[in-house]
Design a protein that fits this description.
Number of domains of chain A: 1
Radius of gyration of chain A: 18 Å
CATH class of chain A: Alpha Beta
Number of helices of chain A: 9
Number of helices of chain B: 7
Shape of chain A: globular
Low-confidence stretches of chain B: none
CATH architecture of chain A: 3-Layer(aba) Sandwich
Low-confidence stretches of chain A: none
Radius of gyration of chain B: 20 Å
Strand order of the largest sheet of chain B: 2-1-5-8-10-12-14-16-18-20
Strand order of the largest sheet of chain A: 6-9-10-3-11-12
Oligomer: heterodimer
Shape of chain B: globular
Structural class of chain A: alpha/beta
CATH topology of chain A: Rossmann fold
Largest interface: A-B, 38 and 30 residues
Order of helices and strands of chain B: HHEEEHHEEEEEEEEEEEEEEEEEHHH
Order of helices and strands of chain A: EEEHEEHEEHHEHEHEHEEHH
Number of strands of chain A: 12
Strand content of chain A: 25-35%
Structural class of chain B: alpha/beta
């Protein structure tokens, strides 16, 4: 699904990713953990193609093709979804339109006709039930006036509607209370399938109580310095990152 | 009559005076029946329950207009009524004998007549006013909304597409009586070679309320001079303007709002988007007269530079001669928000559509304040045509 080799990224003239390697196979869930400033969000943005994140070396193969050669919208149309840590507010563009435009862009890319209005609303309502969201959210501006938790639910709602092949979730658990965390985790879990992969960026082990990862990686100074199973996350929660960094030095 | 303004006249600093100077405003003729038919036949069906008046180059197109009580065309050229109207407006606005009145005087001299709309006390009227152009015209419109009356007026401006030298010089004057309510939606969508200039005089009586929403997108250049006077206590004004300019278009507006009575309240919003080599200017002048109390003004002017070598000039002005006043104002100028753009791209939306959506979002701040949903949807539909890819981002759910 995703093969990252020796990826190097500069942001604002500073190298943040310094030779990162990661392989994610179909159906797998990978958790990326690490201290502040280690490059976790930079990895997510680099994969999504955010301007200003300059790739200076390495390669990223996604389903056998060069992901880095694609524009951001092409990556999304190919099935890469980025769940933002801080989703932006776009007053004046309503949620339902964004969802429909995004879905139709992906369908067009796959040579499918635009989704029928009735079919679309049926789909969205079904996904909103999963995310326990009120339908009133549909007619509101994108993330406009949403609480932090509502924004995160909205990100996962978009993901459920778009059904990506590769989901990159950047600190989806930040700012969530325990009930909201369960709802968001449930939403993510409904998307799990043998054909899909998920990369979770998180600071805390608590998210991984609800979304069970296949692999946990520690990212520090722009490189993955340790990988393991779900037990690694629990150990990090108990002992912090210093011992891993010392071990890798 | 005053001379043509120059760039030394402060309120005309950004106007496309060179283009206006080239127009032979005295070269007026009555439009041919064929030209009138070509334009009026292309108009959309009239809204149910709405009266319609069509002026072509300032002349009444009787065949395309409905017969409505309180609406008539006074074909007296110039005349005492028009002169009085201009003198009264000059006195109210304090702009007499300045370059600002040049085009109103020109209109008085060359207009073939005045459309008079009178809504009697307690009455209601929904009216479509189409101002069409085939050559050079001086449409003149006088509106009176009496005490407690309500007028919903949708003004549309459009030009023939098969002529090369088109120009219009509109004079619109409106008197709102005590507790009258006016909802005025103006859409200027002239063709690419059109030169448009207009003078608006609006007076608001005690507790009168006026909601004006204006969309300016057409013509090669347009200039709007508006003089609004709060004459009566506790009058309310909402002045919302959206301007879109592309290629080499020049749109320029000067709006002077005089608060001459206690508790007058004005909210003014301007949103302008310039692309390519276009120029936009909005000069909002809030005047609060000495001796007034508890006047409130809110002014928000925003410009968006959306690529190319576009220029947007915003001038919020406060001229306050009273002590007990609340006056808020802000002017910002920027480019498309990079974070918003990336968010849309990351959802697979193509760049051109994403940019249109963000422009829509920028402009919609003006549209959301149109009080009547049906009117709002009409204006949204027009803007959606101007911003391809944004159509369904309108207020309906899907």
């Amino acid at each position: 699904m995703l093969e990252i080799k020796d990826l190097r990224t500069r942001v604002g003239g500073r190298e943040v990713l310094g030779g990162l390697n990661l392989t994610v196979n179909k159906g797998e869930v990978h958790a990326i953990m690490g201290p502040n400033g280690s490059g976790k969000s930079t990895l997510a943005y680099t994969l999504a193609g955010r301007p200003g994140y300059e790739v200076t070396g390495g390669s990223v193969s996604y389903r056998g093709s060069d992901l880095l050669a694609l524009a951001p919208e092409e990556r999304a149309q190919e099935g890469v979804f980025l769940g933002f840590q801080y989703p932006v507010e776009i007053p004046g563009v309503n949620n339902v339109y964004l969802l429909k435009a995004a879905l139709n862009a992906a369908r067009k890319h796959r040579g499918l006709p635009e989704v029928d209005a009735f079919e679309f609303l049926t789909l969205v309502r079904e996904k909103m039930k999963v995310m326990q969201m009120d339908e009133a959210f549909l007619s509101r501006g994108v993330n406009e006036g949403f609480s932090g938790g509502e924004k995160k639910r909205n990100e996962i709602l978009q993901m459920l509607v778009l059904e990506p092949t590769l989901a990159l979730l950047d600190e989806t658990d930040s700012g969530l209370d325990i009930d909201a965390l369960k709802v968001v985790a449930h939403g993510v879990n409904t998307l799990r399938s043998p054909e899909r992969s998920i990369v979770l960026v998180t600071h805390y082990q608590r998210l991984l109580d609800y979304i069970k990862p296949d692999y946990v990686h520690v990212l520090a100074r722009g490189r993955i310095i340790k990988s393991g199973g779900p037990d690694l996350a629990r150990e990090l929660e108990a002992r912090g990152y210093d011992w891993v960094i010392a071990e890798a030095a | 009559m005053s001379a043509l303004p120059t760039h030394r006249d402060e309120n005309w600093k950004y106007a496309n005076l060179r283009a206006l100077a080239r127009v032979r405003f005295d070269d007026t003729t009555t439009p041919s029946a064929a030209d009138v038919s070509a334009l009026t036949d292309a108009l959309p069906d009239r809204q149910h329950g709405t009266a319609r008046v069509v002026l072509v180059d300032g002349h009444l197109a009787a065949g395309a207009s409905s017969s409505t009580a309180g609406v008539h065309f006074d074909s007296t050229r110039g005349g005492v009524a028009a002169a009085d109207r201009i003198a009264a407006a000059d006195a109210r606005s304090g702009a007499a004998a300045t370059a600002d009145r040049h085009f109103a005087s020109l209109n008085q001299r060359h207009s073939p007549g005045t459309l008079c709309v009178e809504v009697p006390a307690g009455g209601e009227l929904d009216l479509e006013l189409w101002l069409a152009a085939t050559r050079i015209g001086h449409p003149s419109v006088r509106i009176r909304v009496d005490e407690g009356a309500r007028l919903r007026l949708a003004e549309r401006m459009l030009g023939s597409t098969n002529a090369s030298a088109l120009a219009s010089n509109l004079h619109l004057s409106i008197d709102c009586g005590a507790s009258a309510r006016l909802e005025l939606t103006r859409v200027q969508a002239f063709g690419a070679t059109h030169q448009h200039v207009e003078t608006l005089d609006i007076a608001l009586g005690q507790a009168a309320e006026c909601h004006l929403t204006q969309v300016t997108s057409g013509g090669h250049s347009s200039r709007s001079s508006a003089f609004v006077t709060h004459s009566g206590r506790a009058s309310r004004l909402h002045w919302n303007v959206a301007m879109l300019a592309r290629e080499t278009q020049v749109h320029d507006a000067y709006v002077r709002i005089s608060h001459n009575a206690d508790e007058a309240h004005t909210v003014q919003r301007f949103r302008g988007i310039g692309t390519e080599r276009s120029r936009l200017a909005f000069n909002g002048h809030m005047y609060v007269a000495a001796g007034t109390r508890d006047v409130r003004t809110e002014q928000s002017l925003k410009g968006l530079l959306a690529g190319g070598e576009a220029e947007v000039d915003l001038r919020p002005q406060l001229e306050i001669h009273a002590d007990a006043v609340q006056a808020a104002h802000g002017a910002t100028l920027g480019k498309l928000d990079a974070d918003m753009l990336f968010y849309l791209l990351s959802r697979g939306i193509p760049p051109a559509q994403a940019e249109s959506l963000l422009k829509w979002a920028f402009i919609s701040d003006v549209l959301r304040h149109v009080p009547t949903p049906a009117v709002r949807r009409q204006v949204e539909a027009l803007l959606a045509d101007l911003l391809p890819g944004s159509a369904a981002a309108r207020s309906e759910v899907a």
